[in-house]
Design brief:
Helices cover about 40% and strands about 20% of the residues. With about 160 residues, the chain is of the alpha/beta class.
Length: about 160
């Protein structure tokens, strides 16, 4: 079973301090096994930066899940898939040239880019309407919330 994740952030979503909230959902096959929503510790200067910080956090979680599966001797493909709805963050993960305007996220850049270069992680673009992590980072209207809940395979008890 493949390990996959959806990563999202709301750029400057907090009106008090303009920090972003990042979130992700990690799946083993179709099963949700890990998720989080957390206010980012620093202010992001662009939506790409906020998304990339969330992408790096999701990458760390995916690596942890893969290590756990290996220790438990549960077979899984070596390459995980991470879905992101920000084209800038998606392109940064595959671009070997580090641009001066992104130096403030250099550590996250190298952390994710190294896994992509080693072919252990594949970053794919997902349209915002299909972003499964949306409910972790922003308020949703009831109809979208129900879709969000169903996409996570959660049942109303």
């Amino acid at each position: 079973m493949v390990v996959s994740a959806f990563s999202d952030a709301d750029w400057a979503g907090c009106i008090d301090d303009r920090r972003s909230t990042g979130g992700f959902a990690v799946f083993l096959g179709d099963n949700l096994i890990s998720w989080t929503a957390k206010k980012q510790p620093t202010v992001s200067r662009s939506s790409t930066e906020a998304e990339y910080k969330s992408l790096a956090n999701a990458t760390a979680e995916v690596l942890w899940v893969q290590k756990l599966l290996s220790e438990l001797r549960i077979p899984h493909p070596p390459k995980a898939r991470l879905w992101c709805d920000n084209l800038g963050a998606t392109y940064l993960s595959a671009n070997p040239i580090f641009h001066a305007r992104t130096k403030h996220i250099e550590i996250d850049f190298h952390f994710v880019r190294e896994r992509v270069a080693q072919r252990l992680l594949e970053i794919r673009f997902v349209h915002t309407d299909d972003q499964l992590a949306d409910g972790f980072t922003k308020a949703l209207p009831i109809a979208k919330f129900r879709i969000f809940r169903n996409n996570l395979n959660l049942k109303c008890g």
